[in-house]
Amino acid sequence: MAAAIPVIKVAALSGSLRKASFNSGLIRSAIGLSKESVTGVQIEHIDISQLPLLNTDLIVNGTYPTVVEAFRQQILNADSVLFASPENNYSLTAPLKNAIDWASLAPNCWGDKAAAVVSAGGGFGGGRSQYHLRQIGVYLDLHFINKPEFFLNVFQPPQSLMMMET
C-alpha cells in the first residue's frame, strides 16, 4: 500500500483588489500550474477585500470580527504563504499591509511559516514592495525564500493573467 503524499497547504494573498489585477493573475497561474504539474501542493487564494481596516476597538471581549477570524484561521491552517505584492509608493499596498496586521495580532498567525513573494507591474516590477515585505516578515517570523531573484521589466502578459475571476 502506497503511503499518502502529504499536502502542503499554501495561502495565497494578492495585495491588489482590482478584479483584473496582474498580481491576482499570478496567483491564478500558480494555482493552475500547481494543479497541472505539482503533486502534494494545494494553493488557496485568500480574499482580503472584505477585511475592515485594523482597529482593535473591533475586538470585543477577545473576539475578532467574523470576517477577520475566518481570515486568521485560513492563515493558521496554511503551511506556507504566497504573497502577490504590487508596489505602491515604493512599498506594499494598504490592503496587503492591513491583512498582515490583522493576522499578526496575538497569537501571531504568520509565525514560523515559509513564504514566497511574486509581483507584476511598476518600473521595477514590484521589487521594492518585495523587499519591504521581507523586512516586515523578519518581525513576524515569516521565512521568505530570498533567492533566486528574477526581475523582468517589460512583457506582454498572457491572456490568463488579465482574465478576471468568475
UniProtKB/TrEMBL annotation:
Its EC number is 1.6.5.2. It is an enzyme of class 1 (oxidoreductase). One of its GO terms (molecular function) is NAD(P)H dehydrogenase (quinone) activity. GO terms for cellular component: cytosol. It catalyses: a quinone + NADPH + H(+) = a quinol + NADP(+); a quinone + NADH + H(+) = a quinol + NAD(+). Residues 8-153 form the NADPH-dependent FMN reductase-like domain. This is NAD(P)H dehydrogenase (quinone). The lineage of its organism: Eukaryota, Viridiplantae, Streptophyta, Embryophyta, Tracheophyta.
